[in-house]
Specification:
The complex is a heterodimer of chains A (317) and B (201). Chain A is α/β, with parallel strands linked by helices and 317 residues long. Chain A has helices at residues 2-5, 13-24, 36-45, 57-63, 72-81, 95-104, 140-148, 166-183, 187-197, 201-210, 226-234, 261-279, 284-293; strands at residues 29-33, 49-52, 86-91, 108-112, 133-137, 153-156, 217-218, 240-242. Chain B has helices spanning 18-27, 58-65, 70-80, 88-93, 186-200, and strands at residues 8-12, 31-35, 50-53, 83-86, 94-98, 108-113, 124-128, 137-141, 146-150, 155-160, 163-169, 172-175. Classes of the chains: A alpha/beta (317), B alpha/beta (201). Chain A binds chain B through residues 13, 16-17, 20-21, 23-28, 43, 45-49, 79, 83-85, 102, 105, 107-108, 130-132, 272, 275-276, 278-280, 283, and chain B through 13-20, 36, 55-57, 59-60, 63-64, 87-88, 99-100, 114-115, 118-121, 123-125, 140, 142-143, 178, 181.
């Protein structure tokens, strides 16, 4: 069937397998980890997957410089440590980094605006890979352009590394609103909608018919507390990415989970509570109990206070 | 007794592709009901007629089962009711789990190895013969486990490279692949039929 449909069709074998793994991650939490000990804590807390990286977004934001793919040695160590799927980030447009990540056996590649973009015009041709990709989006047009390029999962961009959920909310509301809007359009209006969205007509038509994206729709970018996770799930996210929210103490200082048992306990409590909140997102009693367990929250940075040029979400298009 | 021509079938909804299972059950004439805590197995004080344990991450599901006696409640339920487990679900109900070892409900007399076929790049879709009527069945394997051994009371309905991938033991049906991700509904139909038969007994 794959030959008949071509590799780029949504019904092709390759894309079905990629979306299949995304389906398995629904209702769960994907946690950023910077070392083997954090990966262990994440798995032990019930994460469905870990994102292996050298610096979480909050540190990248504070330290500056060019942010690149993590060292393969670190990624391999984390793959060897946990039994759950392992994700890693490649720079926007940097298909050579993605080739390396696929070779390492990474289960999902995040073509991420958190890293410094490598191409100002082109995203990675994700159809060329066997490994599935997740990409960020701020609106429906951006989500559908990424899906056209082969993304098997979309996540809101939010504003990574802030601990401020406001932009994740904005992006999720925007995507959901635009999807709802398409469902009431007539067939002839969809051509103009596709033009306005700057997205392929076929994908626009699929969204108009189903009212949802043709791939799972997750949320990322500033989710720091159990309540944030529940908020995003109630707004329509199908799973949650938590970056800096679990292992960061101050904006640029991670909790010392390797040497300080109290700080380790704090990270464990945050991780467990966010996992519980993501499953029981509609149960305020469970959310209250989970929130009470948490013994601290990353300090965070109000997204509104960030200068336009310092925003990560405007990378990619 | 209520009208049981529409069986109520629970889907364990801690995490994973439980929505895909719920849709498949609806297509097969059952009423799906999401199960997030032990009490959900008895909505309105009456036990659900059957239960699906979906695909997802077995380690994540296990963390939730280990709270509030959910593990014991679920084990009791699975020992007495029709159960259909796919992928991570099959890991949860096995007698023994390897690679790495982890706790399991022990209601299916089988040894299951996690991630036995490799990582996501090794995931695959195959067509294979089964004991179900209707010719070869499409099987979607995603970071699939392998059933390494089965006990004498376990009937093997399909195999991949010699290993069982679809098995039945009394009221329990288990697959290491994902029938919920295929259009072909024969496996879900077989389960719903078994649930209806169990109600009539």
């Amino acid at each position: 069937m794959a030959e008949i449909n071509g590799n780029k069709a949504l019904g092709s074998t390759g894309l079905r397998l990629k979306i299949g793994l995304a389906e398995m991650l629904k209702g769960g939490v994907i946690m950023d980890v910077m070392n083997v000990e954090q990966a262990r804590i994440a798995e032990e807390a019930g994460a469905t997957s870990v994102m292996a990286l050298e610096r979480v977004p909050a540190m990248i934001r504070a330290e500056g410089g060019v942010a690149r793919m993590a060292n393969p040695k670190l990624i391999k160590q984390i793959i060897e440590t946990v039994s759950i799927p392992v994700m890693a980030k490649a720079r926007i447009g940097h298909f050579a980094e993605a080739q390396i990540l696929q070779e390492l056996g990474v289960d999902f590649i995040d073509e991420s605006e958190v890293l410094t973009p490598a191409d100002e015009a082109h995203h990675i041709d994700k159809h060329a890979f066997t490994t599935p990709f997740v990409c960020g989006a701020r609106n429906l047009g951006e989500a559908l352009r990424r899906i056209a390029e082969g993304a098997a999962m979309i996540r809101t961009k939010g504003e990574a590394g802030t601990g401020d959920v406001v932009h994740a909310v904005k992006h999720m509301r925007q995507i959901v609103k635009e999807m709802k809007g398409l469902t009431v359009l007539s067939d002839q209006e969809l051509y103009a909608a596709a033009k306005d969205l700057q997205a392929p007509y076929e994908l626009v038509r699929m969204v108009a018919q189903s009212g949802k994206l043709p791939v799972p729709n997750f949320s990322a970018g500033g989710i720091a507390t159990p309540a944030d996770a529940a908020l995003m799930m109630q707004l329509g996210a199908e799973a949650i990415f938590v970056g800096s929210g679990i292992f960061m103490k101050e904006r640029a200082t991670p909790l010392d989970v390797e040497h300080d048992s109290k700080e380790r306990e704090e990270a464990v409590s945050r991780a467990k509570a966010i996992v519980i909140a993501t499953t029981h997102y509609n149960d305020p009693k469970a959310l209250a109990a989970a929130s009470e367990q948490v013994t601290g929250t990353m300090k965070g940075l109000a997204a509104a206070a960030i200068e336009e040029s310092q925003l990560l979400q405007t990378r990619g298009w | 007794m209520n009208d049981r021509s529409w069986p109520r079938i629970g889907v364990l909804a801690i995490q994973g592709d439980y929505a895909a299972h719920a849709d498949a059950l609806t297509e097969c004439g059952a009423i799906p009901s999401l199960v997030k805590i032990g009490e959900d197995l008895r909505p309105d004080g009456r036990s659900l007629d059957g239960l699906v344990l979906p695909g997802g991450e077995s380690t994540t599901m296990l963390k939730f089962l280990e709270k509030h006696q959910f593990f014991d409640v679920l084990k009791d339920y699975c020992e007495t009711h029709p159960v259909f487990a796919t992928c991570a679900g099959a890991i949860l109900i096995a007698r023994e789990v390897r690679h790495p070892a982890q706790r399991s409900l022990g209601v299916l007399d089988a040894v299951v190895e996690r991630n036995a076929y490799g990582r996501q790049i090794d995931s695959t879709i195959l067509q294979a013969e089964t004991s179900l009527p209707g010719g070869p069945l499409e099987m979607v394997f995603i970071r699939a486990p392998r059933i390494a051994e089965v006990g004498p009371g376990v009937e093997v309905l399909a195999r991949r490279e010699g290993s069982a991938v679809l098995v039945r033991q009394g009221k329990i049906l288990a697959a290491t692949f994902h029938p919920e991700l295929s259009v072909d509904r024969r496996v879900h139909k077989a389960f719903v039929k078994a649930v209806i038969e169990a109600i009539r007994k």
